[in-house]
Amino acid sequence: MARRGKPSSDCQLVGEKSAARLILEARESFNAALAARDMAAIERVLGEDVVLVPGDDAQLIAGRAAQLEAWQSIYDSMDQVHYLRAPARIEVSEDGHLAAETGRWTGGWTSQGMQISYMGRYFAKWRLDELDWKIEAETFVTIKRTGGML
């Protein structure tokens, strides 16, 4: 079941709380950037060598440039695209340079008379890059897929 309201409202923060809050803010910015199709804002949150493992049988996406290209392709070819990561837990490492984020994700779009929705679980690895937290890796598992002709 998808969460209602602000996705971060019940996220558990473990470890250095101020760092975990910064990661939560970065995730909220990333969600907003996805909703706005703001490629520059998406880019700011991704590490240079970021890896994305899609939740279905799609190929792994390696590197910030490849991920930006994939997002642009999705936005160019699909109507009403929406993706949301709703973090349930963010845990910062003892040294304060890495963090793990887990939660639920939803996504979907309409295209050529079809409405498709996906949902599942995800894991994100964050790394402190000088002063900013960047996504280093995300792995998605699709738990449910719905949709078809409108």
Tell me, rounded to a whole number, the average pLDDT.
91
The SS-based structural class is: alpha/beta
Shape: globular
- The proportion of strand residues reads over 45%
Total number of beta strands? 7
Trace the largest sheet across and list its strands: 1-4-5-6-7-2-3
**Sheet of most strands:** 7 strands, mixed
Oligomer: single chain
Global Rg: 15 Å
**CATH architectural type:** Roll
Explain this structure to me?
- By secondary structure, the chain is of the alpha/beta class.
- It has one domain (12-149): Nuclear Transport Factor 2, Chain: A (Roll), CATH 3.10.450.
- It has 3 helices and 7 strands.
- It has helices at 17-36, 39-45, 64-77; strands at 12-14, 46-53, 61-62, 79-92, 98-111, 114-129, 132-149.
- The chain has a 7-stranded mixed β-sheet.
- A hairpin with a 2-residue loop joins strand 5 and strand 6.
- Helix 1 packs antiparallel against helix 2.
- The longest helix is centred in the N-terminal third of the chain and has 20 residues, at 17-36.
- The two termini are 22 Å apart.
- Mean pLDDT is 91; it is low at 1-5.
Quick structural gist:
With about 150 residues, this protein is α/β, with parallel strands linked by helices.
Strand and helix layout:
Elements: E1 12-14, H1 17-36, H2 39-45, E2 46-53, E3 61-62, H3 64-77, E4 79-92, E5 98-111, E6 114-129, E7 132-149
Parallel strand pairs: 1-4, 2-7
Antiparallel strand pairs: 2-3, 4-5, 5-6, 6-7
